Amino acid sequence: MARTTAMKIGRMNRAPFFTTDSGAALRAAEMGCQALFKGTSVDGVYTADPKKDKGAQRYDTLSYQEVLARDLRVMDSSAVSLMRDSNIPIVVFSIRARSPSSACAEPSLDTGTTRRSSKVCIRGCGT
């Protein structure tokens, strides 16, 4: 069985003109990570900020292109593009989930799908 290692990368970026998202994406690409986990205050990616727009709809899965084309601001476009070019899925989950273990469980990388209740996976179409 393959060994899995997790590493916290966010909030350690000190490069000027780079967001923490871009810094984390760059490190994930450099390290050849299997996925990038993005913790947010909501349980996934929505059409709008669900805290401000009660009509915001949640996406179950997205492609990198959909995130960029729809200008979904889950991460900056540079970070999303780098993950696309590196073929690394982005797993978006809530940092406020009642059960952190379920929110941080390994995504279903073979299908690009995740459980509706805790996270959403962004990956390339057909991968």
What does this entry look like structurally?
- It is built from 4 helices and 6 strands.
- It starts with 19 loop residues before the first helix and ends in a 5-residue tail after the last strand.
- A 4-stranded mixed sheet has the order 1-5-6-4. Strands 2-3 form a two-stranded antiparallel sheet.
- It is globular, with a radius of gyration of 14 Å.
- It is 25% helix and 16% strand.
- Helix 1 runs parallel beside helix 3.
- The longest helix has 12 residues, at 20-31.
- The protein has a domain at 36-122: 3-Layer(aba) Sandwich (Carbamate kinase).
- It is α/β, with parallel strands linked by helices.
Topology:
Layout: H1 20-31, E1 36-40, E2 45-46, E3 58-59, E4 61-62, H2 64-69, H3 77-86, E5 90-94, H4 100-103, E6 119-122
Q: Based on the coordinates given, report the CATH architecture of the domain at 36-122.
A: 3-Layer(aba) Sandwich
Rg over CA atoms: 14 Å
Determine the fraction of residues in helical runs and give it as a percent range: 25-40%
CATH superfamily of the domain at 36-122: Acetylglutamate kinase-like
Structural class: alpha/beta
The helix/strand series, from N terminus to C terminus, equals: HEEEEHHEHE
CATH class of the domain at 36-122: Alpha Beta
Please describe the biggest sheet, giving its number of strands, its sense, and whether it closes into a barrel.
4 strands, mixed
Shape: globular
| E-strand count | 6
